[in-house]
Protein 1
Amino acid sequence: MQLSTPHLLGIKDLPIADIDLILSTASHFKDVLQRPIKKVPSLRDTTIVNLFYENSTRTRISFELAEKRLSADTLNFSASGSSVSKGESLLDTVKNILSMKVDMVVMRHSSSGAPHFLAKHIPVAIVNAGDGINEHPTQALLDAFSIKEKCGTLEGKKVVLIGDIMHSRVALSNIYLLKKAGAEVMVAGPPTLIPIYIQEALDVRVEYNLKKALQWCDVANVLRIQLERQNEVLFSSLREYNLAYGISKKTLEALNKEIVILHPGPINRGVEIDSDVADSSHSIILQQVENGVAVRMAVLYLLSNAQNF
């Protein structure tokens, strides 16, 4: 079995059959990660470069660990300290790397569409590890895998994405995937952080009242406030944001049901989520991190068998 596409650039154009294949393959790799020896030879003699033009901790480490678990040879590239700082273009950088016989590129870039641009110009598989405010497909896949593992299914589940929807590539990828999988989707947060077109364009519910959103949902995916992407003041202060939209233990106790809490990280404790929630039995945040390795192993493995260039 293989994917219908030679790249993973986003969820928007990814068929549901490919999503199901990735998630089922990830389940097998998660079993592998429970063994005493957590390594398989699936990508032996395959060289993968992690091309990161933006800072990253979880995603980069997760991809690198996934590559090592598959026995791939791994190269790590960061823009700081490279020839990029001397003015070298993205395409020239990648062409120079490919001349060293690289088989696959995992790429994070601050510009939306950068992986799509590369996919048109170089003959190797590209995995989008986050591009600007566009998409973050492997995060959506691991979120879906984690919800399915916890709840049994995605179909019919009510999932709310809370926080900085406007600047979140995680939100967009999650919306695309959840809708394809048959879940009901809501976005919640301050009006200034929710695009005005989103309800009509993406067919999702919009709610500005946190309590109503939590009362509606089965699963809450809490997003980080991305101050680094905001060019203007969109709410009064982090303290005010926490009072209106931060999720605390008190908030959850006021509900007449239990809900599942996710967070893609990094967590701003005391802003979008309090420590007593992030570390509670409601939270599957650490499971998301663990599942991320299995999901990324699945993506890399399936793409290695789908390079029909």
Protein 2
Amino acid sequence: MKKITFFLVSLAMLSACNNTTNQEEEKIETENTEITVDYQYYGDTISAENAIEASKLYAMLEGQDSLVVKVKGVVNQSCVKKGCWMKMDIGDGKEMRVSFKDYGFFVPTNLGGETATIEGIAKITTTSVEDLKHYAEDGGQSEEEIAAITEPEVAISYVATGVIIE
């Protein structure tokens, strides 16, 4: 009895793997189906219109103290304690830290992989070792990782007045 059941299950799996018609139909249905995306808004109400890709920000900041700009990119992480900051991927293995104007709002503490549009001010800053260690602690890093922070960091920092999380 066990051999017959195993044979039937194996036969069903093999025929399902060779059935490309259903997969094509599903793709067609998916392409013609309207997808609803929930957006979450934090801080000031903003729109995603005219946002630049985060990877273009360094070039735009060249020769400027600061820049009022709307940016769209992938969130790598948010503060696991309160959601009082997040890190956004800006390409080439670099991130920018995004804080929120006057700590007037926070984002979810479990972000990672979502797309965000942010509006506010970007600038190149130097973050002290003390602040980097504080951020690492808020980010849930281990004692060893925190102890390994020994140099200040020069990077883009961003103060957002509004955030949209897709």
Protein 3
Amino acid sequence: MKTEDTSTLDQLSSEQELSHTDKMIGIITAPKETFVNIAKFPPKTKDWFLPVLVLCVVIALTQILVMTNPDIAYQAKQKQLEAIQKNFDEAVASGRMTQAQADEQIGNIEERMASGGAITYVFQTIGIFIFVFVFFFILCGIYFLLSKFALKGNGVYASALVADGLVSYIAMIQIILAAILAFAFGRLMSDVSVASLTGTDKSTIIGWLLAKIDPFSIWAYSVLGIGLAKMFKSQSMGKYIIMVFGLWLVGGLLVWFIAKAVPFLSFLNM
């Protein structure tokens, strides 16, 4: 029997489907009740496509705005050049090119960076959209397979798309706050983790560990676990939350080792 103080969101979850705006707010204020409502209806493309699209726009705009700071722009350029230099050093060491060829290539790259202008931002934005959507589809595929077959959930691929897509609204808050802090500290910040706040090098194991101490990431992955549990009709949220955090930590550690072993991918540990 329902009590008289049942929330409006609880009432809506049993009566009618929430609007996308209500879902966006509910993900932040009442994720469990919001996903209970969403799971009662067929997954909607709008519920994952719109937030991921807006996330791409937010990432692109914040990167462009942050790069208007000359100090931050210089730091970003130096980090890119350092990663490229490592690749050329490895190529020289292995005999695939001479030192003179490597120096010439570095010089050409520096010239292109200096004369990039607006076209650089265009290609950067296109790259962001492609990378975010491809990564999103692959990651949701992993969530779907684990939820469906490992945890025996009752859902479809679109169920994972909606759960992960809506969590993008939390990621947007993190990205905007990171951009504000980047301006405040005058240095590159990709998140609000302890590693970013203290300026610890994320390419070290200590830096990797500190990068995982991020309240927004922990919040987002907790909500994602709840979302997957409800979208796959499970009464146990705990095992889905454990699955999401396990994948985040184990997958992140694997990426860290790969980036350390392959200089070309060193940007993944920035």
